[in-house]
């Protein structure tokens, strides 16, 4: 298992550097939600065909992780061989190449080339996910690992919040041909993103990041799969990512629906930003909730103050009036109450948040108007801590198999490819609202996984559940 640096080591600069990385890959990932309606209209696609965007992007996670897993099985863990820093640098390079490929795709105006560019981009993000998530967990004590991961994931969600507004403006307005939708409007934005990834690569190359040696350089075999919490956790990640991506992918189209809101894309992208902004807010709250050094009173105080401040940030990002965004405050209060009921237990909190999302989805399906609109947007708030909690619980007590387990969890991000495509096909048959019954099944499984881990790790705090390093 990895040897941590001395407790006195200052990890602030490495953590800040990696946080910028999490922000950028969150931003680019959420740009898919802007691309979907844009390319759907441009190439006259069905819902199923437009969901190939998510299928190719998140399918790359599965293929990349599968390759990683087999290398780990036969040759030993690649990250242990090349180091976390080199793994991150390689991931950034591949991501930059994926973004740059949008230029020839847009120039040729061929949908298949866009899908190929997204696949390469997804491969780059696969390397970043495997290396960076595990690396963040090593930058400090195991007891605060979940708190750090939630914090970096919060900045990842900041990127997903800004992307619909800024990315939507660039593609739908600034680089459009006088409002006419063209493939060329994606060229300069993605070329800029490629440049940013290269700059991040240079920054991380120059920053001195701590090295973590491994006592288990030649860990081979399927040892990680002997842990039931990991096997169930792989399915949980599959379900969670599938539900989150599927819902986010359809929000702009759902809000265009006359029975819901009848909003134009230039307006609905702001509500999509709220969906991802809710995830950001919840992750900041989760970082506080998981901090084992704070008393219960301080946690509540800090969480309330943070909720107010982050709401202010979200309000400054979206192009909506306070009256338009006001209903969101009700769900923030419910989110705070759910955190308190969760009592810093990862399984219990996951169970509660998944239960709320089941209710919100049913309201979205069986009502209409603003009730349905706000119910689907609020789901982001309760998705917030799911990835971190599932990841924490799934790799608990894996010891030397932690990196192998991490690669399996990243492989399970395949859910982001499968479920949006399935929901697109279902939407073409039963309609966009009824099709939202599909992710209800995902959250029902997360309720089961949360309950299982709540009982199994009832003696473990959210910070300590990150053991094995």
UniProtKB/TrEMBL annotation:
Q: Which InterPro entries match?
A: MFS, MFS_dom, MFS_trans_sf, MFS_TsgA-like
Family matches, as Pfam families: MFS_1
Look up and give the membrane topology term: Multi-pass membrane protein
What keywords are assigned to this protein? Cell membrane, Membrane, Transmembrane, Transmembrane helix
Q: Which residues form the Major facilitator superfamily (MFS) profile domain?
A: 14-457
Which compartments is it annotated to reside in?
Answer: Cell inner membrane
Superkingdom as given in the UniProt entry: Bacteria
The membrane-spanning stretches of this chain are 12-31, 51-74, 86-105, 111-136, 157-176, 188-207, 228-252, 272-288, 300-318, 324-342, 349-366, 372-396, 408-426, 432-454
**UniProt name for this protein:** Sugar MFS transporter
Q: Could you tell me which species this protein originates from?
A: Mucilaginibacter gynuensis
